[in-house]
Description:
It is a single chain. The chain is built from four helices and no strands. It is mainly alpha-helical. The chain has one domain (5-157). Helix 3 (90-120) packs antiparallel against helix 4 (129-175). The longest helix has 47 residues, at 129-175.
Amino acid sequence: MPRTKAQGQIFGLIMSYAMAIGMEVYNIAIKMGYNLNVGGFSTMTLRVFPAALKEAAYMGIFVFITSDLWGNRIGAHFMEKYTDPKKDNPYFCRIMRQAGTVAIMCPTMSLIASILFNVIMAGQPVWELPAIWVGTLLKNFPMAFFWNMFAAAPFTHWLFDLLFAKKNARAEAAAA
């Protein structure tokens, strides 16, 4: 886990882009109609990825900013409310923090995506935004939850540990 502010920012960037890429692959595949094919998402082709990476490049910035401003704080508060780090398994505490973060970040990012993709880019009337947002949230929440729990967070922890494990171990040894 991050031990410095800089490490926290790097961890946040990795997680933000891991989430953005996964969610954009999912949403672009839906936009291209793969979910409606016989076989569903299993019929997806490589043409999904360039469009998803293009959108993830800027959506990752929105994810990073909103998670830094309130998503991570609310996720930490959720964990503190429902767990006791002194008694509970550290992995359970981490899962609860992830759940709390997804519970705030998915509605936030669904609203941003609704405004950007439906109102601004597609020209939908702004008064339809509440319905568009609810529909976007219903579509995105299951994917965001499971993508975070089983792909983005494990990948982020793995990559972060790969990048910083030796530095953190040296810092701990020097402090002892």
